[in-house]
Amino acid sequence: MVYGKKWWSCLATAALVVFTLSATAQAADIKLDIKESVWELKPGLSTTVWTYNGTIPGTPIVVHEGENVIVEGVNHLPVTTNIHWHGLVVPNDQDGPNRVIEPGASFRYEFTAKEAGTYWYHSHYRPVLTQVDMGLYAPFIVKTNADDKYSGDHILVLDDWYLDENGNRLTGTARGTMERYGNIETVNGKTGEAIEPLVFKPGELHKLRFINASTAAYHTLQLDGHSFRVTHTDGHPLVEPYMTDKVTLAPGERLDIEVAADGKEGQVYHLTSDRPALGINIPIEYKGKAVHQVVSPFISPASKSFPGIAEKTPDYVLELGSTMMTKMSDHTGTTGAMHDMAGMNHMMNSESGMVTNGMQSKDMPMNMSMSGMQWTINGKVFPETDPLQVTVGKVVKIRFWNKDTQGMHPMDHPIHLHGTYFQVVSLNGAPPERETWKDTINVPAGQYVDVAFKMEEPGTWMLHCHILDHEDGGMMTMIEAK
Ligand SMILES: [Cu+2]
After folding, report:
1. What digits encode the pLDDT tens for the residues 156-176?
2. Between these two residues, 224 and 337, which has the higher pLDDT value?
3. Which residues fall inside 5 Å of ion ligand 1, going by CB?
4. Residue 235 is part of which domain span?
């Protein structure tokens, strides 16, 4: 367990409590103190963070499929916040954007963990970039009995931080682009040699759950000497799992993979990212004698593809783009976009209290205001974007067309849907390699992706880019489900 012995035992205890409860009351009751802390990324490098219960990532919530979950969020921060249950299907009034928690207040979220899978929870209070970048994220795991049959079930939350050598937050981005990229990358809040090794015995079969909590960074991972068997995308089991040597996660995405421990006692391998110098390097240590080969407990589900979906004309075509604003000082502009930007800046400066919090004032998404970039859906910037009207229980097909290819800033956009999840129907008109269900889909620059879904819960749900600079900068719309 990369959380380390302490973390894993903590997780195991939490799980044990939950499982004990689930056997009796069928309920998990969790309290989250949302508070500022100091977190050590590695010996000699600590930074001020915002946390769920004092750790990065926050307390993992581990429950069983079908369990009732009550989470009390207590806000000790000087700013308003909320909690979004990323990927979980919950009632509309129990999801973050509709349930803010003011400073000093608390809220008890309650819902049923309907479907097993690897999810996560994070702040969705705008500017979302600031709150997630400060550390307000954590895993949310809904387990099945099969998960307990792996030799190890490991949660690996990926993130990046932009800090100076003393752990002070730096403004802007480490990569010279407009999005906020870090110069230090972490697994479960630790970087470099502070990352605890995973320990394998020859013959074992380990389950790894990757969660990309970065606000903009993609992470590509590989394990020398081993292949990955991908079993779940964004928590959803694949009808046809597949083998690969490398996986890439866009911001917001999750992947569950199996790794067969086919090394030998005493060997050490490394699970690394494509930017190893930034610190993601997880040692895999073989210790102990070989065990009988562990067989995968994963059972592929039956196909649940929507009939005739490939031929259906999209109900909506959403063009993803960006525009360069003239000047921030030009508030005489009458477009809603201009007003939105002005509103965002007002919010950043007053409502979020960053100015009084010295550390935070440097951390504003200046890229948005300073660069003057706006991120658009069908040419409009949230909240001026046109909401989508859908009927609960009826299949909706949407085409995301990434036309953000002009000029200096072509970007992929990982689009995330709240309230349900979707089938990936096609990529540039061609069917995907395998039936795939997700809640966050990367739409590459210049390409288009069709997805289809059924809203299960009525209410107003968000649809937005999970590069949080883009989300805060306007690439968001609402789905009104009735
Ligand atoms: Cu984007």
Report:
1. 999 999 999 999 999 889 987
2. 224
3. 413, 465, 467, 470
4. 152-286
